[in-house]
């Protein structure tokens, strides 16, 4: 009996130090935050205007990993709660000495056309898939779709795709005089505008016409047209005859521009393509960079895998075509190609905070109307 009492007394007298309690609390919080970030939700912020006016620079949003299924980690040797570098430094936060096979847990939804999706930027080949820079765009093309942009309008399988409700185009606002930009543009929620006095393409009727280039919605463009100092509002778009060499697949075989793009067939798992010169230009980089094949060699008229020339190829995974809602100010699939399924991070679900980056008072910086706004 006395022996038992002695053990009880010694155990109760061993208390954790304050440092140990703090360490245990921090360790628990880091583990819990890491698991939540990996399995359920992750917070992101919008740094560029490529998704305006649907998402604004300074929006903070939650992205659901559950919708499309959580990916298992590919790069396990990483400082917790970091991405590519340790906070505030250029020191890498990971080592790719160990790379695990990546799987996707079951989700309750597939990626749908029109979803706002966060994904890893595919061309960033210097990082492992799960540590490439995070991008956010709207899915406009699904695996197997035949996608085309005709005169600004996106078509999928021959049918016009519904435009996002707050999508922005570029407009030339011809004016009779200079305007109070803060009053006219900023008060109307137009954050991107530049004064312009020279003709730059055939959509503007006369030379040396004063005015402004603005990025805004159809509704706000119509409102600008009602001002007495505005002569006309013209949508800026390229004609079919204009070719942009910077567009994907960066080949002289395709005479496309951002407003007239395609048609292009989006790769789907199990889809087989014949490797013609056109298909090599379109799908060669996909086969080499995203399909997990070793020893892929590309030439203009041939593809080799492990030294053997192949004349057709069957894709191992699905791909998607992503575009920004700010159609003339978005580096998207038109410029760098398809998004592989294993690069999909999650679905953007709602904005929980929005901070206006423009100089203003502390309380004026919060966009109260955008708090807890559902993303659609």
UniProtKB/TrEMBL annotation:
Q: Name one GO cellular component term.
A: membrane
Membrane-spanning residues where? 21-41
Keyword check for DNA-binding = no
Its membrane topology is listed as: Single-pass type II membrane protein
Which reaction does this enzyme catalyse, per its entry?
Answer: Cleavage of hydrophobic, N-terminal signal or leader sequences from secreted and periplasmic proteins
Localization recorded for this chain is: Membrane
Listed PANTHER family: CHLOROPLAST PROCESSING PEPTIDASE, SIGNAL PEPTIDASE I
- Specify the protein name: Signal peptidase I
């Amino acid at each position: 009996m006395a022996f038992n009492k002695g053990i009880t007394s010694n155990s109760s007298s061993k208390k954790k130090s304050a440092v140990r309690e703090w360490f245990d609390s921090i360790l628990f919080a880091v583990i819990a935050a890491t698991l939540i970030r990996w399995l359920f939700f992750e917070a992101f912020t919008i740094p560029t205007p490529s998704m305006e006016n649907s998402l604004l620079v300074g929006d903070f949003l939650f992205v659901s990993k559950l919708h499309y299924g959580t990916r298992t980690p590919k790069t396990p040797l990483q400082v917790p709660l970091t991405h590519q570098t340790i906070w505030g430094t250029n020191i890498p936060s990971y080592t790719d000495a160990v790379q695990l096979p990546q799987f996707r847990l079951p989700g309750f939804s597939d990626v749908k056309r029109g979803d706002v999706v966060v994904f890893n930027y595919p061309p960033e080949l210097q990082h492992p898939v799960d540590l490439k820079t995070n991008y956010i765009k709207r899915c406009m093309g699904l695996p197997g779709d035949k996608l085309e942009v005709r005169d600004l309008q996106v078509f999928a399988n021959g049918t016009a795709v519904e435009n996002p409700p707050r999508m922005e185009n570029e407009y030339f606002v011809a004016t009779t005089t200079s305007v109070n930009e803060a009053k006219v543009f900023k008060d109307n929620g137009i954050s991107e505008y530049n004064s312009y006095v020279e003709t730059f393409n055939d959509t503007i009727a006369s030379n040396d016409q004063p005015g402004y280039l603005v990025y805004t919605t159809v509704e706000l463009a119509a409102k600008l047209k009602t001002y007495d100092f505005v002569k006309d509002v013209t949508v800026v778009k390229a004609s079919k005859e204009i070719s942009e060499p910077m567009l994907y697949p960066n080949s002289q075989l395709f005479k496309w521009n951002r407003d007239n793009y395609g048609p292009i067939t989006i790769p789907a798992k199990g889809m087989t393509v014949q490797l013609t010169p056109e298909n090599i230009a379109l799908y060669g980089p996909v086969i080499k960079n995203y399909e997990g094949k070793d020893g892929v060699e590309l030439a203009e008229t041939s593809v080799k895998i492990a030294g053997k020339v192949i004349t057709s190829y069957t894709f191992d995974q699905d791909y998607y075509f992503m575009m920004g809602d700010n159609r003339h100010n978005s580096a998207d699939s038109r410029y760098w190609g398809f998004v592989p399924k294993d690069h999909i991070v999650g679905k953007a679900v709602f904005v929980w905070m929005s901070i206006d980056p423009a100089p203003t008072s502390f309380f004026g910086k919060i966009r109260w109307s955008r708090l807890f706004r559902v993303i659609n």
